[in-house]
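Handout, section B. The chain below has 399 residues.
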Amino acid sequence: MASQLLTGYFFLGASIGALLYCGYSLYMLNYASKWINRTDCEKLPPAFGLWKRFLYDSRYKNTTRQNYLLRSRQQSAHWENVLSVLNDGVILIDERGILQWANSSAHQLFNLHHSDVGRMLTALVRDPLFIRHVRNNSLEPFTLDIAQRQLQCSIQSIAHNLRVLLARDVTQDVAIQKMRRDFFANVSHELNTPLTVIIGHLELLNEEPISTQYPPIQHISDAVKRLQRLVDELTVLSQLESQPAAEKLDLIPVLPLLEELHRNFAVLQGHRRISVCCQEDVMVCAEEQTLYRVITNLVKNAMTYTTDTGQIQMSSHRHDDGKITIAIQDNGCGIAPEHIPRLTERFYRVDNSRSIHTGGCGLGLAIVAHALQRWGAFLAIESRQGQGSTFSCIFPPPI
């Protein structure tokens, strides 16, 4: 009987203890849910046992998360401030083309508003070329004409589902380039007529006996002819810049072209050795007369900077990816590395005194670079002082 009574008291005490612990747990659970989200209290509330450990771990993790979020917001605000002061427009879109963020320059260039975030960018900028590049995820740069502005744009992927669009206002640059082209075209046109008259009169004077008694006439004639070459090259360069390339380019065999040039330069080569190395089936897409001028300019340039006993090779070959290279290689004096990036600039000369002596105008390589650009090709230059130079015209695969 006594043992049954003790057992009853034990279970009664255990039940009361369990009820008290459950009540305490419910209280601590409710208190903890409120305390964890507080940021103004660093001291732990009165607790013991597992609840004390739980509150400590929860508060530590919560504080760490809040500090991380705070740092993230600060870094985000910092980069937004940096991007906001850029003159270039910066637009962030997702893989579907939905606008996520844009800096102030982009708002001005594309007439965007803060309320446009979350909308399709192609619905905000209704330009067919722009829509095509955004939808096709094209990485090729393109130019837009929007609200009397010309924007140079490019799209880059920066994450798995994010892309950034960069836009630069090049309206003023394009206007300056057009002004420069018009200036050179007008100057060359205006100089052409008086130069023709002067050359005509000088040719008449050269036929008279006075030309042998008055040597300066020959010097004047040489100077005028050099000026005429300059005007001719300015005219060619202006035409290349102002006129678009033909919609359908000629498919030109390279070997016959190089062989013809070899025959034409045979009279001028002197003791130089000019050779041709080319596969028979190599062809490029270009404009035939302009391509002839391009290779001629490169060969003349090689002859100018190669000694009378030097060697010049005209070659061509097809790469594994289908691209075609036409190269003019010489073993002349070579070019210093600091001059190579500027060789295709107008009137740039490595040696002014040598260029004047040889009759160079500083426009030959500029004509080459502009002509190649019209055909989707480019000029690559390799040179070492004292060893020679190689000028390579690299063409895309012929279509």
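Note. The mean pLDDT is 78. Compare this with the example in section A.
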